[in-house]
Design a protein that fits this description.
Elements: H1 19-35, E1 50-51, E2 63-68, E3 74-80, E4 83-89, H2 94-104, E5 109-114, H3 120-132, E6 137-140, E7 143-144
Parallel strand pairs: 1-7, 2-5, 5-6
Antiparallel strand pairs: 2-3, 3-4
Length: 145
């Protein structure tokens, strides 16, 4: 007869410490949130025309943009004195909305972000409205080829 030693049935389990792993995951999450740039077009899908001569400009303090989607939806995007807003407008009330925004702006600079499929005449109409309402400079946004 051989003698066997029996354990008391309790096995010691090795549990890894997950705290450093969770810390790394949160740091990566914060890094990607900060490093990601967002393209805020107010819910419109806009495919910009391409140009090989794009001038890189510094971000102005005041930003006024007119967004025009494929179905001729128009949105007025403003960022004046740190207050940003995007509102739906139509061609009839664009002038009154634009005039009140341009009056509050220092630079009086308007950017037009129109889809490449929009008629040239529609873009010219919007440019005319902006000029009549006091815009000193009108930029047309494009993508680099």
């Amino acid at each position: 007869m051989s003698l066997k030693k029996f354990s008391n049935g309790k096995k010691r389990q090795v549990v890894p410490d997950l705290t450093p792993l969770i810390d790394v995951v949160f740091l990566l999450l914060i890094f990607f949130m900060v490093a990601t740039t967002f393209n805020d077009m107010g819910g419109l899908e806009i495919e910009l025309p391409k140009s090989s001569s794009i001038k890189e400009s510094a971000k102005d303090i005041d930003e006024i943009s007119i967004l025009v989607g494929k179905g001729k939806e128009i949105k007025l995007k403003t960022d004046i004195l740190g207050r940003s807003a995007i509102e739906d407008v139509n061609l009839e009330n664009l002038g009154t909305e634009l005039q009140s925004v341009i009056e509050r702006s220092k630079e009086k600079k308007v950017g037009i972000v129109a889809d490449r499929e929009i008629d040239y005449g529609d873009v010219v109409d919007i440019m005319s409205i902006a000029k009549e309402k006091g815009a000193l400079s009108i930029d047309i946004e494009t993508e680099r080829k």
